[in-house]
Specification:
about 240 residues; alpha/beta; 6-stranded mixed β-sheet
């Protein structure tokens, strides 16, 4: 049976304070972001059932995972950084540190960097900030997650990327480039009998937890939201149109 996926947006990082900080390379969490992680650690209800941790290899997502899921790490649960779920844009704030730097910085931490590609921070080719490349990465990530043997997996990623990963652009304008708050978490199951897209849908429990009483969108409505959101993100520099 495919696992349940608990998706989490990282805590507040320095670039979240002001657009002027978007020029900072791979920024760390703020002190308030670290406090958000401690609060998430206290309120997250599934610590005992999670059996795998996964995050983007950017500094802020690794830090969020290490600070927010201490019970899992204390139990020795495996924790992988996964290149495919890095943030969408090629702005400096969304461009990760090179693999050598990550290995040095987190050498004493329980994060496995073996799945991080040497060129993951290039923002070229597979890692480009173009829509088709982002979609392909998210498809690859969903397929990888679906084939895992674990029963519940925490995935810590980014505000823009989470819309692509869930294929849901609802309220994408609510915050800066995303509809997800810092340290917000939602739970998903894989859709039965999908067409090879490894699509996921939010669980009823998760929707109730965040008091979402809205009617699920049709395929056509989702497509329209996606077109609107991606056009806005292109205009703001958070992604680029796909090359023909």
């Amino acid at each position: 049976m495919a696992p349940v996926i608990h998706l989490v947006r990282h805590a507040q990082a320095v670039h979240n304070l002001t657009i002027a900080n978007h020029g900072m390379h791979d920024p760390a969490l703020t002190p308030f972001g670290e406090q958000q992680c401690r609060e998430l650690n206290d309120r997250f209800p599934y610590h005992d059932s999670v059996d795998l941790l996964v995050s983007s290899p950017l500094r802020r997502t690794i830090q969020t995972t290490l600070l927010s899921f201490t019970p899992e790490l204390a139990r020795g649960i495996k924790y992988f950084a996964l290149s495919e779920i890095q943030e969408t844009s090629d702005l400096p704030c969304d461009t990760g540190s090179n693999l050598f730097t990550l290995k040095q910085e987190f050498k004493d931490q329980p994060v496995d960097l073996s799945l991080v590609s040497e060129d993951w921070d290039s923002k070229k080719g597979k890692w480009a900030a173009e829509q088709n490349a982002i979609e392909a990465r998210c498809l690859e990530a969903r397929k990888w997650l679906k084939l895992r043997n674990e029963s519940e997996i925490v995935v810590v990623s980014h505000g823009g990327l989470l819309h692509y990963l869930t294929e849901d652009w609802t309220a994408s304008e609510k915050f800066q480039g995303t509809g997800w708050e810092n340290t917000e978490f939602r739970s998903f199951r894989f859709v039965d009998g999908d067409d090879g897209t490894a699509s996921i849908e939010e669980t009823e429990e998760s929707r109730n937890r965040r008091h979402d009483k809205s009617k699920p969108l049709t395929k056509e409505e989702k497509t329209q939201l996606r077109e609107t959101a991606t056009k806005n993100w292109e205009a703001q520099g958070y992604e680029k149109a796909s090359k023909v």
